[in-house]
Amino acid sequence: SQTIHQWPATLVQPVGSPLSLECTVEGTSNPNLYWYRQAAGRGLQLLFYSVGIGQISSEVPQNLSASRPQDRQFILSSKKLLLSDSGFYLCAWRTGGVSTDTQYFGPGTRLTVL
Amino acid sequence: DAKTTQPPSMDCAEGRAANLPCNHSTISGNEYVYWYRQIHSQGPQYIIHGLKNNETNEMASLIITEDRKSSTLILPHATLRDTAVYYCIVRVSGGYQKVTFGTGTKLQVIP
Predict the structure, then answer these.
(1) Which helix or strand (DSSP H or E) is residue A12 part of?
(2) How far is C-alpha B30 from the chain's CA centre?
(3) Residue from the list B43, B46, B87 with its beta carbon closest to the beta carbon of A90
(4) Do A59 and B92 touch (CB under 8 A)?
(5) Do the Cβ atoms of A100 and B32 come within 8 Å?
(6) Of B35, B39, B58, which Cα lies nearest the Cα of B48?
(7) Chain A contact for B32, CB < 8 A?
(8) Tell me, what DSSP letter sits at residue B94?
(9) CA–CA separation, A88 and A10 (whole Å)
(10) With 0-12 CB in 10 A as exposed, 13-18 as middle and 19+ as buried, what is A96?
(11) Per-residue pLDDT tens for A17-55?
(12) Spatial separation of the C-alpha atoms in residues A32 and B18, rounded to whole Å
């Protein structure tokens, strides 16, 4: 069966510090991968998605970046965090197929920037 | 993606059926209706999806109107663990399109 891992689960970082969040998927090949952010009390905002190794599409301009060094690994990074980067970060993968498009989400990382 | 409209919150008594509505009046013929839920501090969880026929699985039932402009997610016997935010999404299938989540409906199951 497929599983998705995210770490760390929680993170407190000072403003201006770097960030690296990792997501890995097991049990599937060539998944579509997604990074979302959810601010407190808000809906999910898509940040990046990837259809393959090294292929990253950005949805929202910001000081975050994403990379996909391996087929089942997706990394979210920042060189200098802002207060507004606080939120709940979710990684998701999409099951393939022609007729359905279900996404499965990881447990999330709660980031607090102080 | 077509937009959806959901009530911001609903209450349901434990053991009763929870009926969560969703309006998607601009849905296209090739767009599916998906439902996810997000329990506090967890990632969203897929519940069910459908195109035009009613669907049922171990978690819920999905009723889609004949004109497909609205749908209802039914949790037949709500439990306290069903307290969550429920998202209704419409989207075409296939490709690598993103899932756009709105603010959903906060369902509170009351003992």
Answers:
(1) strand A10-13
(2) 18
(3) B43
(4) no
(5) yes
(6) B35
(7) yes
(8) S
(9) 9
(10) middle
(11) 999 999 999 998 888 899 999 887 777 888 998 888 999
(12) 33
What are A51-75's pLDDT values in tens digits?
889 999 888 767 899 999 999 999 9
Partner-chain contact A97 B94, CB within 8 Å: yes
How far the first Cα of chain A sits from its last, in Å, is 38
Q: How far is B45 from chain A (nearest CA, A)?
A: 7
How far apart CA A78 and CA B19 sit, in angstroms, is: 42
Q: Which two tokens stand for residue A112?
A: 């607090």
Those residues whose C-beta lies under 8 Å from the C-beta of residue A93, and which sit 6 or more positions away, are A2, A4, A25, A28, A31, A32, A33, A34, A103, A104
Task: Find chain B residues with C-beta within 8 A of A90's C-beta.
Answer: 43-44
Q: Any CB–CB contact under 8 A between B49 and chain A? A: yes
Asked if the bond preceding B21 is cis, omega within 30° of 0, the reply is no
The residues near B75 (Cβ < 8 Å, ≥ 6 apart) are: B12, B17, B18, B20, B59, B60, B82
A-chain residues near B43 (CB < 8 A): 90, 92, 105-108
Tokens of B86: 């429920």
Q: Which two tokens stand for residue B78?
A: 């709500």
* Selected residues 11-40 of chain A with any CB under 8 Å from a CB in chain B: 32, 34, 36
